[in-house]
């Protein structure tokens, strides 16, 4: 059904856009994901979602404990249309809820912090799914995040300042990890089913009245 509807919906998508969708979907991954905890600067939040899109990371998880995740349209440049955003803001402990959900999905949780000597980005084992957590610009990750992480990762730095802007840190990490994945034998791409599901999400975002088209398609399919 999904594949049939995708083929039908693609009739309303330009050939150029179809080609682009089919090209980009092969580079998308859920083997790696990003988690942002309590980010309060819209320009940084927006820059991270752009980095996810650029490096093929399909899902971005956002924990809103004290700060809402606000996007800056001038910075995000439409990237939020192509990356799936999951928000955690309904529980007493949103951080733990997010971590537990990701662990159930098979992710190893890595806290990014300059304050440990656990491992560098280049040393993170990628044979299992990885979720990289980034904290607020001022205080970093919460104690809950640190205590429930499976490991700690840092970016090598050789200057006087001990930390990078969160959006820069995320971009460096995602570049390194995506490069390593593509050079590996790891099956990091989306499954065929996931590709169809994601292409449908994208197509619905560019086709006007996609809901009406879907309802009509379902009526004809059942008649």
Explain what this protein looks like in three dimensions.
With 223 residues, the protein is α/β, with parallel strands linked by helices. It has one domain: SPOUT methyltransferase, trefoil knot domain (Alpha/beta knot, 3-Layer(aba) Sandwich), CATH 3.40.1280. 44% of the residues lie in helices and 15% in strands. It has a seven-stranded parallel beta sheet with strand order 3-2-1-6-4-7-5, with helices on both faces. Helix 1 runs parallel beside helix 8.
What is the quaternary state of this protein? single chain
- The CATH architecture would be 3-Layer(aba) Sandwich
* C-alpha-based Rg, rounded: 19 Å
The number of distinct helices, counting runs of at least 4 residues, comes to 9
Which strand order spans the largest sheet, edge to edge or round the barrel? Answer: 3-2-1-6-4-7-5
Helix share, percent: 40-55%
Largest sheet geometry: 7 strands, parallel
Question: Which class best fits the helix and strand makeup?
Answer: alpha/beta
Poorly predicted sequence stretches spanning 5 or more consecutive residues:
none
The shape is: globular
CATH topology: Alpha/beta knot
SSE pattern: HHEHEHEHEEEHEHHH
Number of strands: 7
Strand fraction equals 15-25%
In short:
This protein has 9 helices and 7 strands. The longest helix has 17 residues, at 166-182. With 223 residues, it is an alpha/beta fold.
